[in-house]
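Exercise 7. Given the encoded structure of a 112-residue chain, write a plausible sequence.
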């Protein structure tokens, strides 16, 4: 893998949503990719924050088959696959009706 210092990255700037406090996370689309961002503890709603993503993650593939597009459709019953900005790992989160992260502890993903 390319060392982080030599990896091409893109900086994104977003406004902290009204319902998010410092230290909590929120999901958004950045460069067409759903990501989960942890709000810095010293940030407050309405404030702008910045984060970086590798360009390889946000670049669109040149050609995608219909099968690949279907396979990459991850949204189901509010569950969506995201990239955690802190470590670039994929994870499942459940979105609420306002586009925020649903923190229901007992919710389970139903594969059917």
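Solution.
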């Amino acid at each position: 893998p390319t060392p982080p210092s030599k990896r091409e990255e893109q900086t994104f700037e977003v406004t902290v949503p009204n319902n998010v406090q410092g230290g909590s996370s929120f999901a958004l689309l950045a460069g067409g990719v759903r990501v989960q961002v942890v709000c810095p503890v010293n940030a407050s709603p309405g404030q702008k924050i910045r984060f970086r993503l590798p360009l390889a993650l946000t670049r669109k593939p040149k050609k995608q088959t219909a099968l690949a597009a279907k396979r990459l459709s991850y949204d189901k019953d509010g569950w969506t696959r995201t990239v955690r900005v802190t470590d670039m790992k994929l994870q499942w989160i459940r979105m609420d009706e306002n586009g925020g992260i649903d923190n229901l502890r007992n919710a389970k993903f139903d594969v059917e």
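Remark. The mean pLDDT is 76. Students should compare their own answers with the one above.
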